[in-house]
Amino acid sequence: MPRLNQKGCPTPFLHPKLSRRVAIQAGAVGLLGLGTNHLTALQSLAATGEVAQAAPRARAVIYIFLSGGLGQQDSFDLKPEAPEEIRGEFKPIATRTPGIEICEHLPMLASRSQHWSLLRSLTHSSNDHSAGHLIMLTGRTQLPPGFDPTKPNPTDWPSIAAIAGALTKPRNNLPPAVILPEKLVHNSGRVIPGQLAGVMGPSRDPMLIEASPFDPNAYGAYPEYEFDHQERKRTPTVKRFQAPNLSLPEGFGATRFSHRLELLDHLDAQRRELDENAQTVQLDRHRQDAISMLTDPRVKQAFDVMSADPKMLERYGRNSFGWSLLMARRLVEAGVNLVQVNLGNNETWDTHGNAFPHLRNNLFPPTDRALSALLDDLHSSGLLDSTLIVMAGEFGRTPRISTLPNFYKSSGRDHWGHVQTVFFAGGGTQGGRVVGSTDKNAGYPTSNPQTPEALAATIYRSLGIPQSTHWTDAQSRPHYIYYGEPIAGLF
Q1: How far, CA to CA in Å, does 79 sit from each of 184, 367, 383, 481?
Q2: pLDDT at 5
Q3: CA 182 to CA 208: how far, in whole Å?
Q4: CATH for 372
Q5: What is the pLDDT of residue 161?
Q6: 167-180: b or e for each residue (b if 16 or more CB lie within 10 Å)?
Q7: Are 104 and 95 in contact (CB under 8 A)?
Q8: What Å distances lie between residue 425 and 39, 114, 143, 389, 393, CA to CA?
Q9: Which of 205, 188, 210 minimizes the C-alpha distance to 154?
Q10: Angle between the 129-138 and 160-167 helix axes, to the nearest 10 degrees?
Q11: Low-confidence ranges of the chain (pLDDT < 50)
């Protein structure tokens, strides 16, 4: 637990100041072709304190997060026998696995059910977006001291991505954990809590690849499936999906690049900036990561999804959902241990109204296509067995359909933390399986209820992190990460 001051409030951990020598060593990062928007992400990789060693076998996780909350009754837990005001407009279809049915608008996933399983009984107590994000992104149901729904807080629990970044061994000089294609932001512009390292300190924030520009008035998988929940008249902005620039600066060929001293003449301006702004130590690691990204062709290819083979782009979908999951697959292949993929910013899946046309026409098609392509490629490459895919949101949706005529033309569902369905594939899970169940209205678990703590434990186990593992703060105090048991019945 964090240290408490005399008033009983947690105090943030202190970090040593950056020395000039380390700043000089790190100064080459910006000169190695990384844009300034990615320098901040690289700086977050330098962790202070000690971490426990992970299990010898390196495994990977792709955590797909549906910000806004997907309705279980409209996707993976349909109730066709329920009254009309409960069951909604969608009909179930059979999957490849006898006895398992899912939404008719997910046909590609239905034909691949041998690769995935469903947990239909994950539950927590919050119906609030910000609290729900923190709960599901950290795997901690109890809100932290000083929780602020309007912004990340230094006393927040560390995110699953931050823990994976701190407690798993880097491979190929790559960051262990990455979030893409953007941080989660509310349409007001405030950053949603739960994504960062919190009490672990900002030096352990996971690497953020901001490939998608934020648009407070746009939702979904641009450009093909961009929409507005309230269907207001608007002119879509032209947005470009842009990953880090991993090219060497002009004039720095491979031979010259190998002679690091030749870069020192170019460091003065960046050294001054680092002296003023850098807050962490061990920035030698930034330089190592930057060099790896520049010299390893696998890494460059992982980021450069827009130049992928046209047939591959077509399989994943030429939209931000497809590009994001393609990048996630390539990063896992290159050696990243955990990739969190935010499928939609601005609480894209918050379907209070116009839910059925927007799910049918804008949200399910790109998700169905991209996730199916990801399953196919990981399976064909032999990586699905060692790569766990998890897909969840901050909560489910209310059993009863509601209407808000002042804002929406048609009906939808409201927030519902009591139950949601979580999608699993790979990582040793058994395909074609359903764990847990809900009542006749998909409102509450009726068997095998599971918690966010169990979800986090499942992810940590899939990463090969032992249950005894802890991280150590600046005062050398241990903090354990398992607050539940891995979900039984999936493996």
Answers
A1: 31, 22, 34, 36
A2: 43
A3: 7
A4: 3.40.720
A5: 98
A6: bbebeebbbbbbbb
A7: no
A8: 33, 9, 29, 5, 16
A9: 205
A10: 20
A11: 1-58, 247-268, 278-282
pLDDT confidence of residue 46: 37
Instruction: Give domain status of residue 263, yes or no.
Output: yes
Closest to 192 in 3D by CA, of 348, 12, 39, 59:
348
- How far apart CA 416 and CA 386 sit, in angstroms, is 32
Tell me the pLDDT tens digit for each residue of 332-378.
999 999 999 999 999 999 999 999 999 999 999 999 999 999 999 99
| pLDDT value of position 74 | 98
Could you list the residue range(s) of the whole structural domain that residue 238 is in?
A: 30-480
Tell me: cis bond preceding 213? Omega within 30 of 0 counts.
Answer: no
Cα(294)–Cα(155) distance, rounded to whole angstroms?
A: 35
Tell me whether residue 14 is in a domain.
no
10: in domain:
no
Q: Which residue has the tokens 């249950």?
A: 467
End-to-end, the C-alpha distance of the chain in Å comes to 31
In a domain? residue 24: no
With tokens 């050398």, the residue in question is 476
Number of domains in the chain: 1
Which H, E and C letters describe the chain, residue by residue?
CCCECCCCCECCCCCCCCCHHHHHHHCHHHHCCCCHHHHHHHHCCCCCCCECCCCCCCCEEEEEEECCCCCHHHCCCCCCCCCHHHHCCCCEEECCCCCCEEECCCHHHHCCHHHEEEEEEECCCCCCHHHHHHHHHHCCCCCCCCCCCCCCCCCCCCCHHHHHHHHCCCCCCCCCEEEECCCCECCCCCECCCCCCHHHCHHHCCEECCCCCCCCCCECCCCCCCECCCCCCCCCCCCCCCCCCCCCCCCCCHHHHHCHHHHHHHCHHHHHHHHHHCCCCCCHHHHHHHHHHHHCHHHHHHHCHHHCCHHHHHHHCCCHHHHHHHHHHHHHHHCCCEEEEECCCCCCCCCCCCHHHHHHHHHHHHHHHHHHHHHHHHHHHCCHHHEEEEEEECCEECCCCECCCCCCCCCECCEECCCEEEEEEECCCCCCEEECEECCCCCCEEECCECHHHHHHHHHHHCCCCCCCEEECCCCCEEECCCCCCCCCCC
Q: Tell the burial category of 386 from Cβ atoms under 10 Å away from its Cβ (0-12, 13-18, 19+).
A: middle
Torsion of CA 272, 154, 216, 127, to 10 degrees: 170
Q: What crossing angle do the helices spanning 452-462 and 160-167 adopt, rounded to 10°?
A: 30
Q: Two tokens at 101?
A: 């049915």
Task: State pLDDT tens for residues 391-434.
Answer: 999 999 999 999 999 999 999 999 999 999 999 999 999 999 99
